[in-house]
Design brief:
Shape: globular
Number of domains: 1
Order of helices and strands: EEEEEHHEHHEEEEEEEEEEEE
Oligomer: single chain
Strand content: 25-35%
Largest sheet: 10 strands, mixed
Helix content: 10-25%
Number of helices: 4
Structural class: alpha/beta
CATH class: Alpha Beta
Mean pLDDT: 88
């Protein structure tokens, strides 16, 4: 389950079938990524690299280690899965000046990651022109088999869409305790991935922003804990 303290909730949370989107079987990882075994593909969304330094430039003090933390988690996943391809679903950089603010050490770490696998940058609204200095290929969207990878989800039906942008999270109450976690939201025809970035927040999947994407309550939220992922039916979720 989510973590050791939440183990007693296991009997209450009913597992849904494995995440399948238009026939493609995907594994949701507790780190906030998705693994497509058939294609040896690792998918992440909304890294928002250098968000901390962007806030600092506006006088909002945050520890300047978000890029290092985000890249470290990516490094660990690449080492674990050895993907043939990594797809970053847009807003990988918090803004167009992120590269200029990035430390030399972090820039070298990112360049090293992109050399270890085929790397695809999907353009986002924060980074419509992702830097090419770090290698990889920049695309507006990409089609692989039954799936389409893009940054911003489109109104239903968007069959086979894998997107980010909204930073989905979900909340559920168990035994009087409210748990709020990042999640992948999916109705089987599309999946919306959470933000992978260390400083990225989350928007509850019951917010009206999802009304045209996941109409009704016929979807699941794959909620992420420290070591596991729990699929929870939308009807059991709480709004913020």
């Amino acid at each position: 389950m989510f973590d050791r303290r939440e183990k007693e909730t296991e009997h209450w949370l009913h597992a849904a079938p494995a995440l399948r989107v238009c026939g493609a079987e995907l594994t949701v990882l507790p780190e906030g990524a998705v693994w497509w075994e058939r294609e040896r593909m690792l998918v992440v969304a909304d890294l928002h690299l250098e968000k901390g330094s962007a806030f600092a430039a506006r006088g909002i003090a945050l520890p300047p280690y978000d890029t290092r933390a985000t890249l470290g988690r990516l490094d660990a996943l690449i080492a674990r899965f050895a993907p043939s391809r990594l797809v970053a679903l847009g807003d990988s950089f918090h803004d167009l000046d992120a590269e200029a603010r990035m430390s030399a050490e972090d820039a070298e770490l990112l360049s090293g990651l992109t050399r270890r696998t085929e790397w695809v940058w999907i353009a986002g609204n924060h980074d419509p022109r992702p830097s090419r200095a770090f290698g990889g290929v920049v695309l507006d969207e990409m089609n692989v088999g039954p799936l389409t990878f893009r940054h911003e989800p489109r109104p239903a039906p968007a069959t086979g869409e894998i997107a980010g942008h909204l930073h989905p999270c979900a909340a559920v109450r168990v035994r009087g305790r409210r748990l709020r976690r990042r999640c992948v939201a999916s109705d089987g025809t599309r999946a919306i991935l959470p933000a992978f970035g260390a400083y990225a927040g989350g928007l509850n999947v019951l917010d009206t922003a999802y009304d045209d994407l996941l109409p009704g309550l016929d979807f699941h939220a794959w909620m992420m804990g420290a070591r596991s992922v729990v699929p929870v039916a939308a009807r059991r979720l709480e709004a913020d």
